[in-house]
């Protein structure tokens, strides 16, 4: 990242051009940092599906602090130049510099520890927010800044995003207890954060749903907000940040479908999006990557899914036993096929069946799977083909087609004749 070089005052005729160039470079450096913050947020979301995530925010904090320091120096030089720049250029530069600082401050307010993305009412949870520029800019005050957590609907989240998080929330969509926490600076670690340790969503106010949408497809979020006093100017600024999308449930039997909504949103949302818009249809290859990531993370194994497993899963979700593996590679899969449409001849969706496999493997079959002793994802027809040439006593474990979370043992027994 390039930072503007601030040198001793040049001849008067060169000063405006140099200050303009320095401001332009500062704006470019700011854009790089804001992009890096967005990438960090996206990686945090993918971690919800099991992806590796470097959550350490210290490098980002140092980059933000470095830019703010350059901003202050450049601001001083612009003010010192004053009349030499002329009123119009002076006003323009100050406006641009203020916008740089404002955007850095707002973007450096982050959710460091996300609330659970499937959140059951009347259940305690934890979360934390961090203000990267807090140690550098937060004004000393006898009263600490207080961060408030409120539940918002998807519609409210869109309105907040549309206003660039400058508007205030009119009404919370749920009642959260212990939802106000102090924003504190820790001189030892050089961090500024608010830790919500015993938060609980007491109740939720459901919003109007679209068409056939179920309650487990309804996405909310926690809005964290506070008003901070910034040094050295003593200005106040309102900071607001949304958590990742949350599906609120009231019964444990809703957990499975809620997890499907979260998995899909985490996997297929874009970095810059209107909350919480996500594609209704995605390439099958991307779906395979997502299922593999989830499987390995949930089962806690280093042995992922293989090509033949993907072939079986494609046959299942598309209900097509005539296509080749290559045919499936060019196909796309819809949200409805993933977790709305019931599989033919069954009483459950593809995701409900797959989640049952995850739970079974995690609880009972982890070591066997990790040692590659289970094929698991294989059709009954292919099992017969595999075992037809094997000696008596040969057996094979496959995940049940007809039962959620079941395993079927196929074995060879030939008669004496």
From TrEMBL:
GO cellular component, one term: nucleus
PROSITE patterns: SH2
Gene Ontology biological process terms in this record: cell surface receptor signaling pathway
Compartments in which it is found: Cytoplasm; Nucleus
Domain SH2: 353-417
Domain of life from the UniProt record: Eukaryota
SUPFAM superfamilies with a match to the protein in the record: p53-like transcription factors, SH2 domain, STAT
Family annotation (CDD domains): STAT6_CCD
Pfam families: SH2 (PF00017), STAT_alpha (PF01017), STAT_bind (PF02864), STAT_linker (PF21354)
Keyword annotations from UniProtKB, A to Z: Activator, Cytoplasm, DNA-binding, Nucleus, Phosphoprotein, SH2 domain, Transcription, Transcription regulation
Main subcellular location: cytoplasm
GO MF annotations in UniProt: DNA-binding transcription activator activity, RNA polymerase II-specific; RNA polymerase II transcription regulatory region sequence-specific DNA binding
InterPro entries reported for this sequence: p53-like_TF_DNA-bd_sf, SH2, SH2_dom_sf, STAT, STAT_linker, STAT_TF_alpha, STAT_TF_CC, STAT_TF_DNA-bd
PANTHER family: SIGNAL TRANSDUCER AND ACTIVATOR OF TRANSCRIPTION (PTHR11801)
Family, as annotated: Belongs to the transcription factor STAT family.
Protein name per UniProt: SH2 domain-containing protein
Organism, as annotated: Bambusicola thoracicus
């Amino acid at each position: 990242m390039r930072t503007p070089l601030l040198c001793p005052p040049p001849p008067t005729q060169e000063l405006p051009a140099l200050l303009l160039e320095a401001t332009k470079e500062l704006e470019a450096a700011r854009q790089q940092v804001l992009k890096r913050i967005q990438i960090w947020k996206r990686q945090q979301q993918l971690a919800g599906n099991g992806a590796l995530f470097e959550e350490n925010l210290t490098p980002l904090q140092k980059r933000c602090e470095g830019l703010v320091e350059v901003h202050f120096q450049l601001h001083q030089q612009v003010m010192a130049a004053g009349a030499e720049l002329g009123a119009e250029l002076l006003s323009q530069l100050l406006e641009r510099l203020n916008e740089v600082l404002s955007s850095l401050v707002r973007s450096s307010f982050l959710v460091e520890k996300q609330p659970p993305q499937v959140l059951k009412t009347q259940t305690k949870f934890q979360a934390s927010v961090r203000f990267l520029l807090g140690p550098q800019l937060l004004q000393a005050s006898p009263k600490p800044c207080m961060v408030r957590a409120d539940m918002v609907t998807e519609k409210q989240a869109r309105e907040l995003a549309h206003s660039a998080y400058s508007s205030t929330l009119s009404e919370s969509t749920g009642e959260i207890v212990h939802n106000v926490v102090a924003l504190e600076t820790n001189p030892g670690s050089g961090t500024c954060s608010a830790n919500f340790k015993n938060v609980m969503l007491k109740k939720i106010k459901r919003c109007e749903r679209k068409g056939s949408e179920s309650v487990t497809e309804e996405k909310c979020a926690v809005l964290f907000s506070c008003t901070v006093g910034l040094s050295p100017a003593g200005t106040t600024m309102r900071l607001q940040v949304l958590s990742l999308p949350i599906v609120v449930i009231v019964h444990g039997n809703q957990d499975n479908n809620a997890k499907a909504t979260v998995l899909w949103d985490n996997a297929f949302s874009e970095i810059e999006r209107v909350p919480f818009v996500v594609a209704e249809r995605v390439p099958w290859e991307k779906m395979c990557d997502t299922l593999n990531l989830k499987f390995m993370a949930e089962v806690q194994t280093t042995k992922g899914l293989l090509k033949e497993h993907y072939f079986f899963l494609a046959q299942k979700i598309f209900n097509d036993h005539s296509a080749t593996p290559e045919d499936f590679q060019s196909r796309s899969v819809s949200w409805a096929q993933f977790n709305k449409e019931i599989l033919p001849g069954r009483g459950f969706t593809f995701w409900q069946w797959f989640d049952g496999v995850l739970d079974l493997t995690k609880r009972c079959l982890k070591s066997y799977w990790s040692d590659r002793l289970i094929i698991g994802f294989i059709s009954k027809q292919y099992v017969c083909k595999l075992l037809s040439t094997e000696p008596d006593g040969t057996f094979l474990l496959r995940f049940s087609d007809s039962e959620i979370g079941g395993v079927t043992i196929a074995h060879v027994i030939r008669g004496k004749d």
